Each structure stands twice: as C-alpha cells, then as structure tokens.
Fold this protein.
Amino acid sequence: MNPRTKLILFRVLQAIPALAGVILVSFILTRMLPGDPAAYFAGPAATPESIAEIRAAMGLDRSLPVQFLHYVLDLFSGDLGNSLSTGQPVLEELARRLPASLELTFTALLLSCGIALPLGIAAAVNQGSWIDHVCRAVVTAGVSLPTFFTGIVLVYVFYYLLGWAPSPLGRLDFVYLSPPDVTGFYVIDALLDGDMETAWGAARQLILPATTLALFTLAPLARMARASMLQALSSDYIRTARAAGLREGQVIFGYAFQNAMLPVVTTLGMVFSFMLGANVLVEKVFAWPGIGSYAVEALVVSDYAAVQGFVLAMAILFVLLNLVIDILYTVVDPRTREG
Amino acid sequence: MALAENTNADKGQRGFGGHVLYVLSENPITAVAFGLFALIVIVAILGPLITPYDPLESNAARALQPPNADHWFGTDSVGRDVFSRVIIATRLDMMISVAAVALSFVVGSIVGSIAGYWGGWMDAVTGRFVDTIMAFPLFVLAMGIVAAMGNTVENIIYATAIINLPFYARVARAEVRIRREAGFAQAARLAGNTDIQVLALHIFPNALPPMMVQISLNMGWAILNAAGLSFIGLGVRPPTAEWGIMVAEGANFVVSGEWWLAFFPGLALMIAVFAFNLLGDGLRDIVDPRQRT
C-alpha cells in the first residue's frame, strides 16, 4: 500500500478512541443531571406513576452499561434526544442552525489567517523591526481580550457611534428575505441567486461578528507563524539556499514558507477549540442564530437535554476537524511522500 | 533542592535575586505586570473597604448616569454605582480563578507526576484521560459540565479546573520524566528514599518553576473562561457583582449608547488577564532564559 494512504488510514483509526472518549463523557454528563432525571423530565406536576413510566420509557431502570449501549445505538441512528422546552429533536434543530455558525466561523478563520500569517511572517523576516513589535503587541493584547467584550466595543463604535454597521441582531435585516437555501451560507446563496442587495445586507451583518472572532484567533496564529518562520529561517537548508545565491524572495517563499506552514497547520486544532468556544459568546453578543446561541437559550430555560446534545455535537465536530487537519498535514508534509 | 539544577555558572555567580533584578531591568514591562498584579491583589483584599457606595444599593433617581465626579464609572439601570461594583467583583473573580487554577494545579501535578515517574499503564491511562478532555472544545465542555452538575459558582470552579487540568498534567509529566533518571534522583534513591519520597521531595520541587510559569499563564485563561461562563448566564446570579455578568447586563444598553455599563467591568477583566499573561512571560524569562522571545 502507498505509505501515504497507510498514514491517512492510521490517522482515521487514531480518531476512534477520541470519539469513544467523547461519547462516554457525554453519556456521563447526561446522567449527572442534578436529582432524578426521570422526575426532572416528567416536570413539576408529575405523579410517582408517571415518573416510573418515564423512567421505564427512558430506560433509566436498566443497568448503566445497558443504558450506555442504548445511548450509543441512539446516537448512531442520529438521535440526540428531544429538547425539553420545544419538544423538537435536538439534532434537527442543530442541523438547521449549523450553517449560520459555520458561515461565521469560516469567515472569521479566513480573516484571521489572512492577517495573522502575513504579519507573523513579516515579523520573522524583519526580526526586531517595527513590524515585529506590532506583531508582539497584537499577540500579547490578543490573548487578553475577552471575546464578548471586543464584540460589545465593536458594536458601540461601528453601530452606535459611526453608524456603519447594521444593528447587531442576527444574520439578515427584516427588510430582506432569506436567499434560497443552497449552501446555507447567506452571502454565497444570495450571490448564487444573483441578488446583490441581499448579499450585501448579509455581508454587512456578518462583518462585525466575524471580526470579533477573528481578533480572538489572531494571536495564537500570528505567534505560531512568527515562531515557526524564525525556526525555518535559521535552519541549514536556508543557509545553503542563500549560499547558492538564490534571491531572497525565492528563499523565503519557496523554501522557508512551506516548511514554516506545517507547525501552523498543527496549531489550527487548538485554534478551532478556542473558536468553537468563543463562537458561543460571539453568537450571544450579536444574536446570531447559530448553534451556540441555541445552547445559550437552552441553558437559560434549563433545557439540559439540548445543552448536552450541543456539547456532544460540538465535540464530534471538533474531533472530525482535528482529523481533517491531521490528514491535511499528512498530505502537505513532503516527507510523507515516499516511505 | 534548587542547587541540584543550578549548573549554569554565570547564573550561579550573580545569585537568583540578581538575576530577577536583571530580567526586570531588561524588560520594564515585566515590572509593570508585577505592579498590576499587586494592584489587583490589594483591590481584591480591601474590596468593601474602598468602595464609595454600597454595590447592591439601587436608587432609581440616579439610574443610567454617565461617568461623573460622584460616580466615576457611572451608574447602571437601577442606579447602582458601577465603580463600586467593579471593585467588589475583583474578589469574586479572583477567588473563582485562583480556586480553579489551584485545584487543577494540585490534581494535574499528582496525575502528571505519577504518569511521568512510573510510566507504563499508569501513563497510558492518564494519557487517555487527558486526551479525552482535550478532544472537546474546552469552553463547550465547561458549559456541559456546569449544565450537568448544576448551575452554581462551585461548579463553575470545578468546570474551569477540569478544562485546565490537561495543561498541568502535561507539564508535570514532561518535567518529571526528564528528571526521573537524573543524578540527584538516583542519589536520593541510593540513600534509601522510597519512590514516593524521591518523587515528592526531590524531583517535584525541581519541576516547580516551569509549573509556576504555567500557573501564571493559565490564570488569565481561567479568568476569561469563568467570566465567559457567567456572561452566558451560568454560575453567578444577579444582583451579585461579577465582571462577566456585568458585561452581559451592560450589553443590552450599548446599542442605545450607554457604554459605561459594559465597558468598565470589561476593561477590568481585560487588565486582569493582561497582567497575568505579562507576568507569565516575565516569570518564564526568569525561570528559563532560553525560551525568551
């Protein structure tokens, strides 16, 4: 078998214990609900009989391993349980809201990579110059900013003071109709539909929350880009390339850049962990109708089934994202090309 | 105990105090960080003694006043003094994050040291455990833990401690592992110490400096996480003053221009996190000059 295919298969296998751990922890979390879950699910007006009935219906009268088995089987048939407040299946609701979160997250990621990578690289190439100091200031300030606070400051400046941004309420102003559903990303869908006005309206709503999230992830990416670029520039092959008389641009972009990007791809995993958490806060600030605000709404009304469904869905998403990053790394890394 | 590691000759000549002074003079920002840190600690300790108003006392007659000479940070929607509330919240915010970090430091050190010292199946089991925590987006896991265990301040502390645990366990494991077969550890073993004594009294004290750096770098993150949890309505309940919940309450007024409600608690939060992050960088310079950036 091709060594690279083998490595990718190995990566996929490696994701299985993580997935199993995530499912086990989620199971424990759903069983840790304060008090008796059956009494809780039955509501305040329940009689002992109706509680016993619900306990049997939920399978809570069986042993824990059996309950776990049922939990896993439900999960594989796509059942994350029902929301207590709306009665709707949690998975359906999450699937409906996921595109909004993904649109926000990916836009923020593009934005932050677009700024962080050039900044980090420029700082490494001109070490000790003003751009290096700017980079250091951004990195130190960036990790100290509470996401929700940055969002509120941006709303105050760009909505209240300057009036450039629309009111921070959701994905699209009331005057527009949502574009026909193709990708679930409003901006792209509206563009596909040829409706420039709606696309512009959606983009205007998107820009502040995406900037907030991007500011948050800027710091770790810029720090890593600078560090790994510095390391690449001080290595032997760069000295050799310079000694061979290659132009500086060729040295930096042809040789150092490619090697420096590998550790950056690895940090993306950690960045995603931060981002999926920060997403919840940003969605609350901007009333963004994604899965994060769904979880916050569920928390407010103590709808713990919905919250645990959200936690599990996010964890599975995160494990899969990490898998994609690992595979990407394997594909990008030239050392895995031949065994 | 520290002597065992102090092989660096020029560092030894100047002494540790001299080295600290040298690093501080080299990087004045670290001195600023120490100053900010001292300020936060003093405010947290004095708390109620230095607030000009009762942080819980509402007064409809002076609601939503912008910052002025009487109310430096303005007043909120029910007329409470924002300055007093920001001051009084320092203690609660610090308490939550110090308790959480202390808890994950203790548990993480024990778990990590055991894994690093004995290796084998213990390492495998604890490694799996830590990996499972890291397989979650950490803030989301904290949300799930608080939702499952109940919505209280103690559970915010436990949740923050759990999501910080992996970092301590990993540092402790790595630092213990590289010293497991060091000369001083072998000498202690030869002198008749048991494994636990060697680990607890000889190896672990030498692993402390990097752990201290980790604590300080982690504090800022712990404060952010705890404030984030209360921002989305977990843990601290109104009318208690806490930075995260104050920003959340103030957020509704920002769109109509009353910026001071959310701004000052947010600023306090930012300064606290900033101070701890700078302090962590400074401590790292003192502890491990090679990692200086």
Observations:
- Chain B has one domain: 21-51+71-291.
- Residues 21-51+71-291 of chain B form a domain with the MetI-like fold fold (CATH 1.10.3720.10).
